[in-house]
Design brief:
2 copies of one chain form a homodimer. The first copy, chain A, is 52% helix and 9% strand. In chain A, strands 2-1-3-5 form a 4-stranded mixed sheet. In chain A, strands 4-6 form a two-stranded parallel sheet. The N terminus of chain A is likely disordered.
């Protein structure tokens, strides 16, 4: 996204308007896009983020730029949404990029890797990492379906399975899988996992703070006016903050209700955490030696992770630790 | 902000456009606002947040809605910006509401109170706290200049002084004050505090995750079209995320440089933290008994704080603690 050039143009327009203050008539073409989500409609936060995005684009364009939002399986299977954008079957997809690490592991860095960044750190990295913010920068990175944390689980002896959110409950119920991870208590309760899986382990070290992404077809995006490009960018920022806030706000009550209804909380044993951490670091080193895309992006990511953990250890953790031990 | 009604209207327009797809000509009046900031131009993150906001409003409106941003002292003193909005001298102010707790302490809850919410928790509370998101909801809450953490400092024996950001360095240098707090390492280094104050204490318990606010003159805001109201809301969300990310990204390097140049880091002793915590809780209870506005908002805030600390103690702190003790 050529953010700087937008700003320059706005600045020029501003200078003109300041002197002449003309009543500019502003004509934008009415536009209609389809968005394919990887998530089921039942999850109002994660699926809802695409709805928040689409509604915001509509509001910001005075109702002229309209995006219809389609749940996983409606016009596209959960893991087919990015192919659909590439084929121009839909203009935009809302998904978790690590589903597509199979063609290039680098995509996992756009969402979450085991022992990666937490949510606020991820935002800091993405906002400042200008060169990977736009679709153009994604070119050359190939994609396929997968789940990246599974690679580390494999290394510590587990058998990972990649299943869309809406299909996890039946798989647990039928015993096709023994365990599952999803976003957190609010969704887990909604999806009814506690009915078929009474033990609840934390923390989710395979994704400290995952981000979701909107993938937009290159031609569709390039055809947008600078104003509509800004609209898409701002609506995505709103959807990002909004989804994080909704999860944070709803998770505590869900956690209490899960525990109240018999779910047992376990902290992952230190040995498991340490073995998984070691396996992750080894895997990242191996990837760096054979995947140049990964190496380039991971080096920056790892630098930020080291810096952020230093920083969070002081100001942030010292405050949070104190608060968490008080009677509130 | 009547967010729901915007969405309904957009939804209707969407339904019409879907069937007829008319090439609507969209006329918005060119508009020019002035924004008065409480912060000095030298601080690119905190002052910059208002610039990010203004630029985004410009981009989103195709250069028709323009906001000029003025630093503290330029057209208004740092602590005069909210009065200026009330008097309609400027349309909009960018400031920290706790400067104005003197007329009603409730305002501090819109920014930061000692032992309050951390940054992500604050976002969750504000996003979900619909009834205090709009200017209309602020009516009846009176304002004056102040700094809220000072009230607790007073209770534990210190003498608080409220000084705008740009005036802190000379006050430290002259010895008018013995100590100062500002946002964090990045700004502290920029403002040169380390040259006159070598000891650096953490965590900043008087504001776990302060938020800044845009105050908009009621008449100016009411005169906006629904599209421009959405533009203002989205631009504020972008500025919020952007400023947090910039601080998080820049603070680690600044902290390392400060320590490298001789600044000594101290963790506040547990006794100090506990005395300050106790004094805070007593003060909040006293305020609840004599200020109905405070009681109403604080009860909701305190409920969220208890829930959030429960939640952050599990999933978030368990992950962060582990990461902070690894060699990265």
């Amino acid at each position: 996204m050529e953010r700087r050039s937008f700003i320059t143009r706005t600045g020029l327009a501003g200078a003109l308007a300041a002197t002449a203050a003309p009543a500019i008539v502003h004509a934008q073409t009415a536009l209609r896009w389809r968005l394919a989500s990887s998530f089921p409609k039942s999850l109002d936060t994660i699926f809802g983020a695409a709805e928040v995005f689409a509604k915001k684009v509509g509001e910001l364009s005075g109702g002229k730029f309209l995006i219809s939002v389609h749940a996983a399986g409606e016009i596209m299977p959960a893991f087919g949404v990015v192919d659909a954008v590439q084929n121009a079957t839909v203009e935009i997809a809302h998904t978790a990029p690590y589903y597509f690490f199979g063609k290039d592991e680098t995509f996992a860095l756009g969402c979450a890797i085991p022992f990666g960044l937490n949510s606020r750190q991820m935002t800091a990295w993405m906002v400042e990492r200008k060169e990977i913010k736009s679709l153009a920068d994604m070119k050359g990175l190939k994609m396929r379906i997968g789940g990246f944390g599974g690679r580390v689980l494999e290394r510590i002896g587990a058998v990972p399975q990649n299943i869309p959110g809406g299909d996890i409950y039946p798989a647990l119920e039928k015993g096709t899988i023994d365990a599952a991870e999803w976003v957190g208590p609010y969704d887990d309760q909604k999806l009814g996992f506690n009915k078929v899986a009474p033990n609840y382990c934390y923390p989710g070290w395979w994704e400290g703070g995952p981000q979701l992404d909107f993938f937009i077809n290159t031609k569709s995006y390039d055809a947008l006016t600078p104003e509509y490009k800004a609209v898409v960018e701002a609506a995505a920022a709103v959807a990002h903050t909004d989804m994080q806030a909704k999860y944070d706000y709803r998770n505590p009550a869900a956690l209490k209700q899960l525990v109240g209804s018999g779910t047992r909380l376990f902290r992952f044993p230190k040995e498991v955490m340490e073995a998984a951490f070691k396996a992750s670091q080894e895997m990242y080193a191996e990837l760096s030696s054979k995947n140049a895309n990964w190496k380039k992006v991971y080096e920056d990511y790892a630098r930020v992770r080291a810096d952020q953990n230093l920083w969070f250890r002081f100001a942030e953790a010292a405050f949070d630790d104190f608060m968490q031990t008080q009677k509130l």
